[in-house]
Amino acid sequence: MLSAALLTLLSFGLLFLGAEWLVRGGAGIALRLGLTALVVGLTVVAYGTSSPELLVSVKAAWAGQPGISVGNVIGSNIFNIAVILGVASLIRPIRVQSSVIRRDAPVMLAVTLGGLAVLWDGAVSRLEGGLLLVASVVYTVWIIRAARKEAPGEDEGLKPLGVGRALFFILGGLLVLAAGSRLLVDNSIIIARALGVSEAVIGLTIIAAGTSMPELATSAVGAFRGQSDISLGNVVGSNIFNILFVLGLAAVIHPIAGAGVRGIDQAFVLGTAVVLVPLMWTGRVIGRKEGALLLVSYAAYLWLMWPKG
């Protein structure tokens, strides 16, 4: 089990490095196309930092491990709001643009409800997965078209890159992510069996935290630099992407059945999404007190869901 734990830690590093390269390449091209910093955070950065969730869930679905596949998505969405926004807002209060409250947060809440409706019977068919994929494409096209009406954001810590260099980062990032995701899934299963817990619990905790490391690093750095658009857009966009694209693609590749996600997990993923909306409304700032509350809620979730004794 010790070697599995060490390899799991190594996989965290690979996932972080791969996502960082993917984000750098994708954001560099997106900024050349004139997208705003908020939209880059909602799409390119969010999708890039969610690429570990994508590869891990797809690999788990292909290998017939639905608990890991679905648990990773649900656990990552809880982690993104409760831990990542909690940490980022403790570093520096996050200012919220009106467009996030008016447009993006309601979409995230609606997508969360839709994802839970699909998972109501504990299964996701290929048809349901296909519908989620279509919805992800519609959302991405819509958000980019909406961005054309907004002023391009500059000086947000992201820089345009040459096409050749951007492609190098994108391809290199994908290769590193593939290696990291394989290590994480294989060794997390070994740890789950050694601890006597279900694959769903491992997916909701260890794997969810591991695949969310890129989001945590991106949002924390954004908070240090005062880039609220990147920090908040990254989390909101990642949560939308995880349900629509990650869960959708995993189900299309291999229908998911018997995921093992419990009512408490569904309650927390919905609860964090619901609570985030009023937190953003209060002064249009997510302050340090709200961040601390989010972190405490995640600690409570871990205590409630982890097997006792």
From TrEMBL:
The chain crosses the membrane at residues 6-23, 30-48, 68-91, 103-123, 129-146, 166-184, 190-211, 232-257, 263-283, 290-306. Keywords: Membrane, Transmembrane, Transmembrane helix. It holds the Pfam family Na_Ca_ex. It is found in: Membrane. Residues 4-144, 167-306 form the Sodium/calcium exchanger membrane region domain. It is a multi-pass membrane protein. InterPro entries: K/Na/Ca-exchanger, NaCa_Exmemb, NCX_ion-bd_dom_sf. This is Sodium/calcium exchanger membrane region domain-containing protein. It comes from Haloferula sargassicola. The lineage of its organism: Bacteria, Pseudomonadati, Verrucomicrobiota, Verrucomicrobiia, Verrucomicrobiales.
